[in-house]
Amino acid sequence: MSTSNPVVYFEIPVHDLKRAEKFYTAVFNFQFEHEIIDGYAMALFPFEEKNSGITGALAKGDVYRPTRDGVIIYFRTESIDSTLQKVLQLGGSILYPKRTDEKYGCAVAEFEDSEGNRIALHETLL
């Protein structure tokens, strides 16, 4: 039995890869690499082996269907407030407003991205 974190990769379904890439670049300042994997267009999130966390991709294809009802991915942010402001400026919407959890020392929120996916935010409190 491994003691490492069990999740290693994720894919966020998109209808329009260019629109989704523009949205995530503007909200989080990500730079993407482009690949075709198993015939599907992918925009890969940045990843460095030496850093903690997982990576994934924006994925377009017939098997990828954006939804607000599936798995929720949490992105780390320095400021949920400023991230949600960018989301709104880019046409996204807030699904779950910022909530602080003193017990776990964090704040969380959720938004709908440009493609219709439910995405969560995590901010560590000092």
From TrEMBL:
Cite the VOC domain residue spans from the record: 6-124
**Can you tell which superkingdom this protein's organism belongs to?**
Bacteria
Q: Name one Pfam family in it.
A: Glyoxalase
Protein name stated in the entry: VOC family protein
